[in-house]
Amino acid sequence: MAISGLFRKKTVHDILKQVEKNNTDGHNALGKHLTARDLTAFGIAAIVGAGIFSTIGKASADGGPAVIFLFLFTAIACSFAAFAYAEFASMVPVSGSAYTYSYVAFGEIIAWIIGWALIMEYAIGNITVAISWSDYFTGLLESGGIYLPQWVQMDYLTASNGFKDATALMQGGKTYENLGSGLQAAYTAWTTSPVIGSFHFVADLPALLIIILITALVYRGMKESRNASNIMVVVKLCIVLLVIFVGSRYVDTANWDPFAPNGVSGVLKGVSAVFFAYIGFDAISTTAEECKNPQRDLPRGMMWAIIICTILYIAIALVLTGMVSYNELNVGDPLAFVFDKLNLKWMSGIIAVSAVIAMASVLLVFQMGQPRIWMSMSRDGLLPKRFSKVHPKFKTPSYATIVTGFVVAIPALFLNLTMVTDLCSIGTLFAFVLVCAGVLVLQNKPNIPRGKFKTPYVNSKFIMPVLIAIGLVYAFGYNQKATMDFITNETQINTPADIVTALDKEHTTKVYDYLVAVDAKNSTVETPDLEHLLSQYELDDAKYATVVAGLPVDDFIKYQSGFNLFKHKIPMWIFLIVLFGLTIWSYKQNLSLIPLLGLICCLYMMAELSVWNWIYFTIWLLIGLLIYFGFSRKNSKLNIPEA
């Protein structure tokens, strides 16, 4: 088959014809139950979850009160992408979401890649939510006097890595009591877990429990899922509004000064955490076939969900950073933490209950989205036929739902939160980039049937060069040092924690002796805590650089330089090169500004993720391509034998 066969496309006409056929004969047809209000509720159910109850804490600790600007930026970026999704959903009202849209715009190979990436978004996103749900659920049990062993409420990777870091820090003089609560829990989980040979059995069993329950509900039917989602949304919105109302009475405006303590870089450091707080609005598009009027209601549901959730996020961020200092918020349960700190125990209990409900509703929406993607891919022949099987009574993709349960449940037992959050973010952003690009590709094609919703057109031909010029003025005029350090790959000093955890026992002793010699009055033999001794110099950059330079260890422990530093900048260089290409494309083709800005914003947020996420994501895509060339290409329904 020719290379061009990889880019064979489905037409909108054929897709709509097949959906109509399914609805007429009842075969493989899904039940139609959803209205605009239900879709908005699903969007809020998906968005208001782990972000507002968990990751908002770390983002606030990094950016301070100015994190609200990151919420605004992310909301605008998601809104640009939502316009593109809404236009496609109006044009092609079927369950495939970005997968089907890419099939129309780019062809089969790109559609397969995006479908494979969406598995990462929904499945890995659900792993993240299940882990967060487990944290809040076990906290709720402990507040009621029920204590589960640490090794049944923590994943294997967190326990293993935490044990190593805790051991290194204690070897450096830190006592167990002075370790962070997370490291204490990981150390306890690892040392108290059952051991089979050299394998420590550490698994997050509450996460497994909630996945089983939600999968059963999704399997049972869309109407039941909708009703459960609507109830959970009402409950958590009431709780969030209560948090804002009660918390606002304890706001101390002095905590908002400085407003951006770590500058722009500190605010942007929370990109992954804040973007994860918005993931989910696109899951609405997977329910297109189950909407009563998808062309009208899908765009409305997406937009209202983003607007409502952005207002709530900004209000929560201002209340949190006003109640306590921003640097205290790097905790897993920031809402419960701030009220507990102010001795409002009754609010902490309410928040814990609300978080358990909120996380479950997110899990519900994501667990609905994944099977419907697989169902669409199976209908096209790219996955085995069983994935498109619809339950005769419940009218749900039954087999795909069960498989999704297994795909989410097993990794949730063993993977840690940070890894899966970033992987979920990069998979989702990649989907957003392709959907925005798809709208740009189709904008000037006259033979494409158009839906009722169309993204407002603004010509980007001259706007893009102006925006690029403004960016260059800012980079070289107001942020010159950071820009030149990036371009010249200037050596960076590692943090005290990174240095200490990289030391062996021999070097630990040498470093301690050196620090005592440097400043004996700040060093006590009774508590030789290396991380503390090094951290005291961080407030003075010049002093810290001098002290680190004299440490009796190899430079690779003290610094990041050369390729080890440059590799972390590769995603940003990719973004800058693509940005230049997009500017030329927009000038030549008069591209629509809104989807173009959506593409750029999402690609920028991808560039802010670490290079390891790009590597893991690339490996994931390569595995998907092996499956495509081994099974999907020859079984595709577009694979008509050449004469």
Q: Which descriptors apply to this entry?
A:
643 residues; mainly alpha; two-stranded antiparallel sheet; globular
Helical run tally: 28
Would you report the number of β strands? 4
Mean pLDDT: 80
Strand content: under 5%
Largest sheet: 2 strands, antiparallel
Structural class: mainly alpha
User: Can you tell me the residue ranges where pLDDT is under 50 for at least 5 consecutive residues?
Assistant: none
Kindly describe this structure.
By secondary structure, the chain is mostly helical. It has 28 helices and 4 strands. The protein has helices spanning 12-25, 36-47, 50-63, 67-91, 98-105, 108-143, 156-171, 181-192, 205-220, 222-248, 263-268, 271-278, 294-323, 334-341, 345-379, 398-412, 417-442, 463-478, 480-488, 496-501, 505-518, 530-535, 541-549, 555-558, 562-566, 570-589, 593-607, 611-635; strands at residues 195-196, 199-200, 492-493, 559-560. Strand 1 and strand 2 form a beta hairpin. The N and C termini lie close together (11 Å). The model has no long low-confidence stretch (mean pLDDT 80).
Reconstruct the topology from this structure.
Layout: H1 12-25, H2 36-47, H3 50-63, H4 67-91, H5 98-105, H6 108-143, H7 156-171, H8 181-192, E1 195-196, E2 199-200, H9 205-220, H10 222-248, H11 263-268, H12 271-278, H13 294-323, H14 334-341, H15 345-379, H16 398-412, H17 417-442, H18 463-478, H19 480-488, E3 492-493, H20 496-501, H21 505-518, H22 530-535, H23 541-549, H24 555-558, E4 559-560, H25 562-566, H26 570-589, H27 593-607, H28 611-635
Antiparallel strand pairs: 1-2, 3-4
